[in-house]
Amino acid sequence: MSAPLLEVTNLTKHFPIKGSMGRTVGAVKAVDGVSFTLEKGTTLGLVGESGCGKSTTGKVLMRLLDPTSGSIKLDGEDITGLKGKQLDGFRRRVQMVFQNPASSLNPRQSIGAAIASPLVEQRIKVPGGIKAKVADLMDRVGLRPEHANRFPHEFSGGQRQRIGIARALALDPDVVICDEPVSALDVSVQAQVVNLLKDIQADTGVSYIFIAHDLAVVKHMADDVAVMYLGKIMEQANKRELFENPRHPYTRALLSAVPSVDLDAALTERIRLGGDLPSPSNPPSGCVFRTRCPAYELLDEAGKQRCSTEVPAGAMACHFPNAPLAATVGA
Amino acid sequence: MEPMLSVKNLTVKFPTDDGMVAALNGMDLTLNRGETVGLVGESGSGKSVTSQAIMGLFKESRAVIDGEITFEGTDLLALSEDAMRPYRGKKIGMIFQDPLSAMHPFYTVGAQIAEAYQVHNKVSKKAARQVAIDMLGRVGIPDPKRRVDNYPHEFSGGMRQRAMIAMALVCEPELLIADEPTTALDVTVQAQILDLISDLQAETNSAVIFVTHDLGVVAQLCKRVVVMYGGQCVEQASVRQIFQRPSHPYTRGLMASMPHLAGDTDRLTPIPGSPPALLALPKGCIFADRCEFAKIVPDGRCLNMRPELIVEDDHAVRCHGHELKLIDETSLIGAGS
């Protein structure tokens, strides 16, 4: 079997905490040993709550942040150590769509220029000219090419996100990292953008890393899903398996917390996580989820002991998957 | 029975350099004692303006307000700023979306809750502080005796929202307006806060207007729903009716464009186009340009005439197609593209 398109192994990103005199007194473990692979033409969803490290993972993948350790391989080639100009070739193949299209577009740059900027930056010779390419891109994302000279403020939120998508597609990338691309949009417009991203994937075979906190949107977009908590992947599985048969206590709690529109839905599990996320600068020892875990509550002493030992990283970071869960945890 | 709150044909316009922005265009809403109503709509639909108008927050602004807001027999719009004061905070409480910007960063959480109490009750500082501690305990803040002296930045997002709820409920209002109180929160924390609001409501029996864009939250918390679009109520019914028999094309479109956790749909059906520009509203139905039923309604009625809110079996719908019985239940869910 050939190498996967993108292979991430044991990726960590720690932000140092500086004390007095500039000494490093600790680290915020934003991403702590994340591994996954992404195949061509598929979508990997990264979900989790704020502070779980999903956006940092996206930024490290894009090499906007340097990883602390671990490796990122694109088509088998390690890109972790690339610097400066060496990154150009990599960025031609990996692009990003940001959450807030209003702040990721320059208000004084026409949207045509914004969409053309990756081509200009990379000095790409476009047969037929950049203008035609921009018109083609705008058409592809459902914008009217004659609006190329307009400025970002003249567009609605959904349209701005389309501009961001057109810009990310300008270099015909193999991977697009979408960081909460639809969270700022209203549902009716969100559906338009989700459909657009899916259509583009069907047409071009691009792969997505889809970062979001909305489980329903991720279920819609992704082929595989990784659930993150405190910088680590808790559970990673095929979408169908993860949503129909979640095994990790955190995944189960997360799914049960989503308010359902089905009035007659028999709530098989109704789990309430108490308390707040522990600080990523001082995560619990052993399993990082054990302080809020609804399964931990019901374990005997030996089980609890086991939870304070390191969980092997992998698709299922839990000592007791499928364990019975307490209905509420903590305060 | 006389409803506790009734909003009739409320219009709110804001003067801007580009002209009048029509934020509300004839909003109607009724609320009975102890009832929870969900106010649903997308950005710019007028949900927040409705709640702010009820709170009387436009009294000293340049907003042009017309219509009627009757609360327990009193016309709130006719009240002066001073006369409004006993209502605001005392009889009507409000929870804002972003507790970090709704709280003063330089005062302790306890001091702010105590202040809200002292404004309406003649008590000593010490007694007000005790009320604040009790209230923090009631909203589930652990160790309230110590936490009462914390500043807002020392609280997590979920705890801050709990403190906001404590502040809104400290005077035991008869009506609580919650303006997107869980939108900024993670789902697991949102679940905690929704549980808290429904528990406290059961305890105090106050009426709640719950403003949200999330239909899932409405299904979980509310008895009745008001769907807003372009500053109007386009549909109003019980939660069950809305989810089982959504009648307005916009409500149907909203449901079809929502991704669901249950079930397996491959493609979402978005509503084509974008929300209306409030500077220049169309003469006819505000939703007409995004609605595919507008084509089948005769005489171009949707483009030329504002539909009325027609009530039938406690189910109110503002739609020509529905009024003329041109949209039946089997016709396509969602406006399609």
TrEMBL record, chain A:
Which keywords, in A-to-Z order, does the entry hold?
ATP-binding, Nucleotide-binding, Transport
Which Gene3D superfamilies did the record assign?
P-loop containing nucleotide triphosphate hydrolases (3.40.50.300)
Which GO molecular function entries does the Swiss-Prot or TrEMBL record give?
A: ATP binding; ATP hydrolysis activity
Q: Name one Pfam family in it.
A: ABC_tran
PROSITE patterns this protein is in? ABC_TRANSPORTER_1, ABC_TRANSPORTER_2
Name all ABC transporter domain ranges: 6-255
For the biological process aspect of GO, one term held by this record is:
transmembrane transport
Q: Which family does it belong to?
A: Belongs to the ABC transporter superfamily.
The name of this protein is Dipeptide/oligopeptide/nickel ABC transporter ATP-binding protein
Q: Which organism is it from?
A: Glutamicibacter uratoxydans
Automatic annotation (TrEMBL), chain B:
Q: Which domain of life is it from?
A: Bacteria
Q: Name one GO molecular function term.
A: ATP binding
Q: Which GO terms describe its cellular component?
A: plasma membrane
Q: Which residues form the ABC transporter domain?
A: 5-255
Q: What's the protein here called? A: Dipeptide/oligopeptide/nickel ABC transporter ATP-binding protein
GO BP term, example: peptide transport
Q: How does it sit in the membrane?
A: Peripheral membrane protein
* Family (UniProt): Belongs to the ABC transporter superfamily.
